[in-house]
Design brief:
The chain is elongated. By secondary structure, the protein is mainly alpha-helical. Helix content is 84%, strand content 0%. The protein is built from five helices and no strands.
């Protein structure tokens, strides 16, 4: 069980790396007028999304595996809240996929300011999830 928890944490870190950095690439892309820079950012966005997809998928796989090994977890209120936040992260990840496609097709109309605010969302999720897992308030 400790191996599955450890791998879950490793892939959560990988997932969050993408959730934090991909929107920052969107900001740079939205602010750039240089076609060469924009082309390079499209490549970076596509590659980072692949890594983010892998991290997210494996974080979920090892998280579910941990739940199957310790079924008592599902009786705890803090875990229900954590899983709700993870569902929110999955929705956020879906938004990143959509934005990556829009930028690839030069169709994203979001402002750099909106993208900067959007970039803060996973940080709020991370704070809440860590507090739930460590403090277990309910």
């Amino acid at each position: 069980m400790l191996w599955t928890k450890a791998l879950h944490i490793v892939f959560v870190v990988t997932w969050f790396a993408g959730l934090f950095y991909l929107p920052r690439l969107f900001v740079y892309h939205a602010e750039s007028n240089d076609p060469a820079v924009r082309a390079q950012l499209k490549i970076m966005q596509r590659r980072l999304l692949v890594i983010t997809d892998i991290g997210g998928t494996l974080a979920i796989v090892f998280g579910v595996w941990t739940l199957l090994l310790v079924p008592g977890y599902l009786q705890q209120g803090w875990l229900h809240a954590k899983l709700a936040l993870v569902a929110g992260l999955i929705v956020y990840h879906g938004c990143l996929i959509r934005l990556t496609r829009q930028f690839a097709q030069d169709r994203c109309a979001r402002s750099p300011r909106w993208l900067r605010l959007f970039n803060e969302i996973p940080g709020l999720f991370l704070i809440a999830i860590v507090i739930l897992v460590v403090v277990k308030p309910f």
